[in-house]
Amino acid sequence: MKDLDKYQFEIRELSADEGGGFLVSYPDFNECIADGETKEEALQNGRQALADVIAALKEAGLPIPKPKQNPFDVLARRAIEESRAGKTVTLEDFERRMKKNVSWETSGKRRQKLP
Predict the structure, then answer these.
(1) pTM of the model
(2) Which end of the chain, N or C, is less surrounded by CB atoms within 10 Å?
(3) What's the CATH number where 43 sits?
(4) Cα(24)–Cα(32) distance, integer angstroms
(5) SS3 content of the chain, % helix, strand, coil (to 5)
């Protein structure tokens, strides 16, 4: 399920009092958490928990929250896409975009190669 990748998650290390390992949660789904001994295991378990929650909501006929995106995620994905397309993306340009909170589509520099 590629759509699962669109949902933001948070991961944190659990203290010894909490049993150790790592905890994954999804801000778009209050009821969706998972843990694991390693980050990788926690992420895998979290992804499965998210898939199960979405399936349960669908089965119950309840709405499924749309993935929220923060400006950093949008700009980071854009920079990765541009880099893969052979365009030069500098750290300075990325920081400038973050400060302006403007994507390529709204900046007036659509598909222009960066210095």
Answers:
(1) 0.60
(2) C
(3) 3.30.160.20
(4) 8
(5) 50, 15, 35
Secondary structure, 3-state, 29-79: EEEEEEEECCHHHHHHHHHHHHHHHHHHHHHCCCCCCCCCCCHHHHHHHHH
13 and 36: one domain?
A: yes
Q: What is the 8-class DSSP label of residue 94?
A: H
- Are the beta carbons of 33 and 49 closer than 8 angstroms? yes
- Per the structure, the count of domains in the chain is 2
**Strands laid side by side in the 29-36 sheet:** 10-13, 22-26, 29-36
Kindly give the confidence (pLDDT) of every residue in the chain, 115 residues in length, as a single tens digit, with 9 standing for 90 and above. Answer: 568 888 888 999 999 999 999 999 998 998 899 999 999 999 999 999 999 999 999 999 999 998 886 666 666 777 777 778 888 777 787 777 767 654 444 444 444 444 4
Contact status, residue 33 vs residue 23, Cβ threshold 8 Å: yes
